[in-house]
Amino acid sequence: MELNQSPPRLNLTLLFFFLLLSSLQATTDTNICIVGSGIAGSSLAHFIKHFTCTDPQNPNPGSCSWIDDIRIFERRAVPGGRMATVTIAGDTFEAGGSIIHPKNFHALRFASMLNLSHSPESDEESDSWFGIWDGSRFVFKTLQPPPSWSSFVVKKIYSLLNSLLLFRRYGFSLIRMNGFVQGMLDRFLLYYKGFEARPVFETVDEMLKWSGLYDLTRRTLGEELIDAGLSSHLISELVTVVTRINYGQSVSISGLAGAVSLAGSDSGLWSVDGGNWKLAAGLINYSGAKLHLNEEINSISHEGVHYVLNSSKGNSYKCEVTVIATPLDELSIAFTPSISLPNRRLHHTYTTFVRGLLNFEYFGFKHASEIPALIGTLEVPDVPFSSISILKKYDEEDMTYKMFSRGPADDSLLDQLFSVRKETVRIDWPAYPHFKAPEVFAPILLDDRHLYYINSFENAASTIETSAVAAENVARLIISRLEKLASGSPTIKIPASNDEILHLDL
């Protein structure tokens, strides 16, 4: 009997040790864990390596300080977070973060460093053909552009006539609006100053007060623009159109978010060929960070000197530093100990891509060719969409459109708006915060150790570049706090200046 029973006991013993070994292997030590692979998380990985490696292009253990192990966790199948694309009729279009401003120096530097080609966000002539729709008629339209083969002189005359049309309707308020936006940009550019002139910030409030942008988060955009001398006519029409397109919200958003939104209507806007998500993917690869796709973090607990991250795949990771680089507003990560965040909600933008043809009768025209290339809308209850724009024109009766709305666009609505629909793609994006003045900001430091939150800055303004700026500050904050605690470890050196960002050959 005993001889017959010994093999099972041996097998059970081996099985026990195998399971024990497997459980030990599933817990992995690492220096920094980043939750989220969008521009915030990928920028952070890049900046950490850039600031701590003697040769960031070859971040091997010999060229880096002891911060040489970074893991990034992404719950989706591809990196990029809210930078994503859709494919229609073989063409790729931006579905998430779509445009980058010519003064977004981090994004420009990333694209140059990664050898990513980029193109203007849209054709300037077609983009200048827009109309403002109030639900029943166009209250304002610019002129239809001349044919593409027109001479340079004809195109210049067209541009001048459109400028005169805008000036006749809105007057000197246009100049005051430009001054308001430029003032915001000048203060934002302070975040590119050399490190010797720019401190490391532990709170969003400190960061905004240092640059002089904090007061813009205390009042609404409408209030700021009235004080800047803009007419109510311009605010209720052109400014409202811009904020509805860029943030899906009215001029009741905070002044800083509104100013950033208005900057998003400047000339010179660009995007990466093939999708802005390539910025994030390229930065992750460039930094040498380990990317875990399709792996969602379910819980984060502080145990001893580490944070333990448990994932949807049943894996556990021990991390000296943990950084949240994705909005926590709609995630259900369990934190132990618990963390405290102000109440905040994300604004959902419903993006609908349609290949087909707009219904010209809906807009009161006799032919589809009379419909402006960009339709913006006023803040009135009877308008079921925020904007409709042409992304690509195949011929006079076949185009790809992008429509923003505050609610889902069902088939009945789309059948009213479009006379032909060959292909339809719907996306529900938790795109950006619901901005509300005065803004209350989440902490950057979520505890008194090393749990950080990059997206706390997002309630100031939500763009690709603001995420990169916030990530750079968090990278410096992590390094400076680790350096203070390090004893007997190699000193972590941050470059004395970051001026190369400002000296790009643009």
UniProtKB/TrEMBL annotation:
<keyword id="KW-0325">Glycoprotein</keyword>
<dbReference type="Pfam" id="PF07156">
    <property type="entry name" value="Prenylcys_lyase"/>
</dbReference>
<dbReference type="GO" id="GO:0001735">
    <property type="term" value="F:prenylcysteine oxidase activity"/>
</dbReference>
<comment type="similarity">
    <text>Belongs to the prenylcysteine oxidase family.</text>
</comment>
<dbReference type="Pfam" id="PF13450">
    <property type="entry name" value="NAD_binding_8"/>
</dbReference>
<dbReference type="InterPro" id="IPR010795">
    <property type="entry name" value="Prenylcys_lyase"/>
</dbReference>
<keyword id="KW-0274">FAD</keyword>
<feature type="domain" description="Prenylcysteine lyase">
    <location>
        <begin position="155"/>
        <end position="484"/>
    </location>
</feature>
<dbReference type="GO" id="GO:0030327">
    <property type="term" value="P:prenylated protein catabolic process"/>
</dbReference>
<keyword id="KW-0732">Signal</keyword>
<keyword id="KW-0285">Flavoprotein</keyword>
<protein>
    <recommendedName>
        <fullName>Prenylcysteine lyase domain-containing protein</fullName>
    </recommendedName>
</protein>
<feature type="signal peptide">
    <location>
        <begin position="1"/>
        <end position="26"/>
    </location>
</feature>
<dbReference type="GO" id="GO:0030328">
    <property type="term" value="P:prenylcysteine catabolic process"/>
</dbReference>
<dbReference type="InterPro" id="IPR017046">
    <property type="entry name" value="Prenylcysteine_Oxase1"/>
</dbReference>
<keyword id="KW-0560">Oxidoreductase</keyword>
<dbReference type="InterPro" id="IPR036188">
    <property type="entry name" value="FAD/NAD-bd_sf"/>
</dbReference>
